[in-house]
Amino acid sequence: MNIVIDTHTHTLASGHAYSTILENALSAKKKGLKLFCTTDHAPEMPGAPHYWFFNNQRILPRFLHDVGILRGVEANTLNINGDIDLPSTSDQHLDWVIASFHEPVFPPSNKDEHTQALINVIKSGRIDVLGHLGNPNYPFDIEKVLQCAKQYNVAVEVNNTSLTGKSRKGSDVRCSQIVEIGKKIGVYFTTGSDAHFCEEIARLDLAVNLLQLHKVEESKIITTSTQRFLKFLLLRGKPVIEQFKHLY
């Protein structure tokens, strides 16, 4: 399986990452990526930038070191209503919005509340993908949430860092369950390194192994070609990115 896009990466703007976007782009080029999403943490995460940072991504070139740049954010799911921590006026400036649970922002509660929050953030129409769902601190009704994700064309991330055992310990078992159930339901999957240092860009081996273990069809893994990924954005109602026309 050939992965050409990394859909979850951080720069030093996140407050606890250590590379610039130029360093990330150079690493992406060296590792053969065609595109990557820059997805720094949204404002409610301690150390994260102001929302102007995300609105101002329009000044970023569409290509850095010959790698296409998707302007994004890792937003925080704030509550059971499915609110995220950016104003709706930011949406027009973003190509790719991840919604994730983070303990400092949404203290772990119970399965029903986590399920309700995930379903509502999907139904909000503001997010494109659910990030690192395997976190064992946030149990949820996997089938119910993934059925909703399929209905609303929201992708499910397979997060490589979650599978390393260094972060969100215990995620590996739950990630496997999510992929197994997601394959049966027919959700779209994406692969994210969750890189917080440039050398981690495109480190997706564990995510790929898990998807292959469950025999997920490449047509359902949107990072296996630029066409699949960009057509998924169209499916989400995003406009054509003129500078990427040759990649559709």
TrEMBL record:
One of its GO terms (cellular component) is cytosol. Zn(2+) 3 binds at E74, H102, H132. Pfam families: PHP. GO terms for molecular function: phosphatase activity; zinc ion binding. CDD domains: PHP_HisPPase_Ycdx_like (cd07437). Zn(2+) 2 binds at H16, H41, H196. It comes from the Bacteria. Keywords: Hydrolase, Metal-binding, Zinc. One of its GO terms (biological process) is bacterial-type flagellum-dependent swarming motility. SUPFAM superfamilies: PHP domain-like. SMART domains: POLIIIAc. The keyword Secreted does not apply. Binds 3 Zn(2+) ions per subunit. Transmembrane segments: none annotated. Belongs to the PHP family. This is Phosphatase. It comes from Vibrio algicola.
